[in-house]
Amino acid sequence: MNRFTSRLLALAGLLTVEVLFGLVLFIVAFAVFFYLARVVFVHHSVALDNWASGIVDGWRLANPGLTGPVRVVTFFAALPFLLPASVIAPLLIRRAGHPRGAWEMLLAMAGSVLLNQLLKWYFNRPRPTNALLQTFGLSFPSGHAMLGITFYGCLAWLLARHFKRPVWVVPLLLWAGLIGLTRVYLHAHYATDVLAGFAGGAAWLVAFRAGLKLFWREEEAVMEEESASL
């Protein structure tokens, strides 16, 4: 079997239900991000942001004691938490016998941080002026939402795939969603920032996994060819 044929068979082997689901998720996430960017920067609409702010402001007025717990929840996607967690978690995953999973999480987070900063610089949207906590940097897309969905989404995937713990998938994704909601509650971001962060993080995670899978498949194919030639 020549190299071209083996590559075609390898690519055909990648067309699994998992890959098709990932492709659909990527297209939907990318479309949502593109739509939100048009809403904010082309149509200059604030209807969604005002509607979401009105709802969370109502929650805060009805339950003033909620702000303290919300500040605690939002910490779990802040850089002071995610930076060490993005190193410690891969080390634990590697120690558990999954070195590829460890590299996957480490590189996914590094790429997400870089991509989020590039998007912020490109769109250059100022943050809300009435934040309930000290905030820095630009607003669109939300770093907490984007990095949170990357970290907890990747962790959920690894737990389900390598550790046979699919029961953690929904709680981890809901936790990431709750963290995004805290950013709107605290007026640290607009609702469109958070939704764009979720969409951007999901699109990045799917694209990164697909690229990594292709790289590893190519690497394995090269190693097999080298072994066969010996």
What would you note in describing this structure?
This protein has nine helices and no strands. It is globular. The chain is an all-alpha fold.
Which labels suit this protein?
single chain; 230 residues; mainly alpha; 9 helices; globular
Summary, kept brief:
This is Phosphatase PAP2 family protein. With 230 residues, this protein is mainly α. The protein has 9 helices and no strands.
Q: Secondary-structure map with pairings?
A:
Layout: H1 3-14, H2 17-41, H3 47-62, H4 67-75, H5 79-95, H6 99-123, H7 143-161, H8 169-185, H9 191-229
Helix pairs in contact: 2-9, 4-8, 5-6, 6-7, 6-9, 7-8, 7-9, 8-9
Oligomer: single chain
Structural class: mainly alpha
What's the gyration radius in Å? 20 Å
State the helix count.
9
Proportion in β-strands: under 5%
Regions with little confidence, pLDDT below 50 for 5+ residues: none
Q: How do the helices and strands follow one another from N- to C-terminus?
A: HHHHHHHHH
Helix content: over 70%
Count the strands? 0
Question: What's the main sheet like?
Answer: none
Cα-to-Cα separation, first versus last residue: 16 Å
Shape: globular
Report the average pLDDT across residues: 88
